[in-house]
Amino acid sequence: MENLNQFIVEKKKRPIKILQFGDGNFLRAFVEWVLQCANDQGFINTNVAVVRPLERGKVKVSDLKQQDGLYTLYLQGMQQGEMISQKSVIDVLGDFINPYTEYEGYLKYAESEELRFIISNTTEAGIVLDSKDTVLDQCPNSFPGKLLALLFRRYKHFRGDYSKGLILLPCELIDHNGAELKKVLNELAAINHLDSEFLNWLNEANTFCDTLVDRIVPGYPKDEIEQRTKELGYIDYFVVKGEVFHLWVIQAGDEVAKEFPVNRANLNILFVEDLAPYKERKVRILNGAHTALVPVAYLYGIDTVKEAVEDPIVGTFLQHIIFQEIIPTLNLPQNELDQFAKDVLERFKNPFIRHELLSIALNATTKYKTRNLPSVLQYIEKKGSLPKGLIFSLAALLVFFKGKRGEQDILLQDNPEFLELYKKLWAKYDGSYTSVKKLVEEFLGLKSHWGVDLNTIEGFKGAVSENVYAILSEGMETSLKRVIS
């Protein structure tokens, strides 16, 4: 059986207008797919040159090149109640550059008249200042260092022409990723003593867009690759699997949307003036629902997200906290929030992904603070009452960190200081309601963590204490049924 190549699947030649830092599964299952859709529908006409961001990485650009840049993408999941499974061959990867071995070839892209966009996903640790990147005539270590060298070469080659600036679309999962990349580039330019005219060109000729991306990408389907290979009729070392749902929010003006009209390809891509409400929506509904669900569902006896959503009791609880307690605290149109929430619940039911609850439980104490507590506090402010589901979830979180599900030990994963705290708190428990109230009071009083003494909120300590005691004395099922009744 042959390896996938351009003689098996036609590869289209297009101008390279995009330089992409990163060659991982997410970019191939998300950004490249978006570009493929927009190319196929005639809204754009571009291929991508992929730059290897690290000297050592899982994916080698030379290996992708041996497949002529072609690979198979499987998208699977639930959509409007239907099970979807579709495959396509992506052909937009046009060049592959290892800047560590072909640095001058990399910099040559700075001189391209056709180059217009920079896209990156170098992980959360990618957009960082490396003060050792002070020699730009050899390959810098960091992503910002490589990018600065490219932009400086472009500035010099085009003699500071402002029309030759680029549009930058970082996809790293950090807040204000575009603004942060711009900040790091300015700091690194100062360290390298680059002149003020270049700094003006860097900041004024180039457009740095904050973005938000969302798609679950399990990656290479190693457990089913034999079956996939027989089905495809060729060998593909870069098969990648992703969910059907996708979202790309780009904070940019009309001029960027006109140049990069991927949103017109019937895709869930938004160009907005302010990214913040969409980021908040994702964190509160998607991530917040995960965090609130985990301790409740796991102590109920469920192991996966899909099982939890489909359980009549736990699933009702989840819908209650999303639609009745989280959504009322958010500032976007009701129909958009409702649709996003429905999409989230479908994603949770994805039969092609086994999402273990314990994998989401990692660092749950901090996650509750960042994802759920803002909803709790804003609900109290707006409604004048406690959100009973989110309060119950906090109580379940405390019981979860007691470390037992029936007779079974729970593999607890959190910051060591929190694990030590829970150990200390539960050492004081003697089975009485009085001891529960004392440990809850200490837990809620962690002002250094919560940012506020939660004991000062009327009814908060009593509600958490009653729920903790009910879970311990009656069990999760009985306690949860009372909450959702």
Account of the 3D structure:
It is a single chain. The protein contains 21 helices and 14 strands. The strands form four sheets. The protein has a six-stranded parallel β-sheet. Strands 4-3-10 form a three-stranded mixed β-sheet. Strand 3 and strand 4 form a beta hairpin. With 485 residues, it is an alpha/beta fold. The protein has helices spanning 25-29, 31-40, 61-66, 103-108, 143-157, 177-191, 196-205, 225-232, 254-259, 276-300, 305-310, 312-326, 334-348, 357-360, 364-383, 388-400, 416-426, 433-444, 447-450, 460-474, 476-484; strands spanning 16-21, 47-51, 71-79, 82-90, 93-97, 117-120, 167-170, 207-208, 210-214, 240-243, 247-251, 269-272, 404-405, 408-409. The model has no long low-confidence stretch (mean pLDDT 95). The chain folds into two domains: 16-272, NAD(P)-binding Rossmann-like Domain (Rossmann fold, 3-Layer(aba) Sandwich); 276-484, N-(1-d-carboxylethyl)-l-norvaline Dehydrogenase, domain 2 (Orthogonal Bundle), CATH 1.10.1040.10. The radius of gyration is 25 Å and the shape is globular. Helix 10 packs across helix 16 and helix 18 (433-444) packs across helix 20 (460-474).
